[in-house]
Amino acid sequence: MAQWIRYLVVSLAGGGALLLGVSGCSGGGSGGAKVADAAGGGARADAGADKENDDDDDGEAIPLAEANVFFELNHTDGDLGIHSLIDGEAWRTLSIESPNGRELLGIEVKGKLQRQGLTELCFESAEPSFDELAPETFFRRFPEGPYEIEGETLEGDELEGTAVLTHLLPAPPGNIRISGVPAAENCDADPLPSVSGAVVITWDQVTRSHPEIGRKDEDIEVVKYQVIVERREGPAPLVVSVDLPPSVTEIEIPSSFIALGEKFKLEILVREASGNQTAVETCFDVVK
After folding, report:
1. With CB atoms 3.0 to 4.6 Å apart as the test, which of 25, 47, 92, 181 could cross-link to 161 if both were Cys?
2. How, if at all, do strands 145-153 and 250-253 pair?
């Protein structure tokens, strides 16, 4: 769920970014905060990013700086959702239209907020389990193709962008290990893996699409991994979130963070070139 966060971003040697905070905005992730994307990628197309060159002298529409629509699969929980991240000039209306011409979302700013305008929209849909909504039914609701995003600025100019949505979902990362110990299937496992000393997370590189959901077993281009470790105890959750390039499948979690607790949740997300991503979740304990 999108929300504000107090955070600190630290650059990592060799690429990537580290975020420490209490919660986050899931603009491109699941439950974790969106941080500097050192690996590149993204879920947008035809969405010009240079606002300084957005001269509307010819009456042409102003391109949105961000026009992202993508899917997120939680492989562990068995659910799918549609997400979006849109950013651009201040607007008073915004809409998303599917490839079949039907409007999926329409927003109109009212009252005094209409004079101020909005610039960014980050949302994710409800994610019912596959028992309630089968993947095949979900994909029929949201077909592949271009999703047109249009808006109107405070000055009455047109905003536009196009996001190309696909049903290509990364396979889940396999062979996840925590300091050499195989990860549990989920957080309900009993007992959970226990480790001591340095906490090193490793997994196998992902090169193919999901074997059972969406466009099955195709070659994909992974643009980044996101590793999120959350403390499960204490008055408020604490989170470490790291974006890694696709060539990196190992990371040591800072000992200063691990020292803050004994029970942790691990999430690894795999993002492919269109922006779609697959997440797996597990938990582990640390013995002091």
Report:
1. 47
2. unpaired
Tell me if domain 7-39+169-286 and domain 51-165 are identical in fold. Answer: yes
Q: Which of 195, 174, 194, 171 is nearest to 185 (CA)?
A: 174
Mean pLDDT confidence for 119-141 = 96
The answer to whether 142 touches 136, Cβ cutoff 8 Å, is: no
How does 75-97 read in b/e, with b if 16+ C-beta sit within 10 Å? bbeebbbbbbbbbbbbbbebebb
Phi-psi region of 14 (alpha: psi -120 to 50; beta: other; left: phi over 0): left
pLDDT of residue 135: 98
Comparing CA positions, the residue from 33, 12, 9, 41 lying closest to residue 230 is 33
Give me 257's structure tokens: 């963070």
Tell the residue number behind the tokens 């019912």, with chain if given: 128
CB 35 within 8 A of CB 28: no
Residue 161 has pLDDT above 90, yes or no: yes
The top-level CATH class assigned to 7-39+169-286 is: mainly beta
3-state secondary structure of 279: strand
User: What does the pLDDT read at residue 118?
Assistant: 96
| Segment (H or E) for 256 | helix 255-258
User: Which of 94, 82, 117, 65 has the alpha carbon at shortest distance from 214?
Assistant: 82
Q: Kindly list the domain boundaries of the chain, sorted by start residue.
A: 7-39+169-286, 51-165
Tell which CATH architecture fits domain 51-165: Sandwich (2.60)
Mean pLDDT throughout 198-214? 97
Tokens of 196: 């001591």
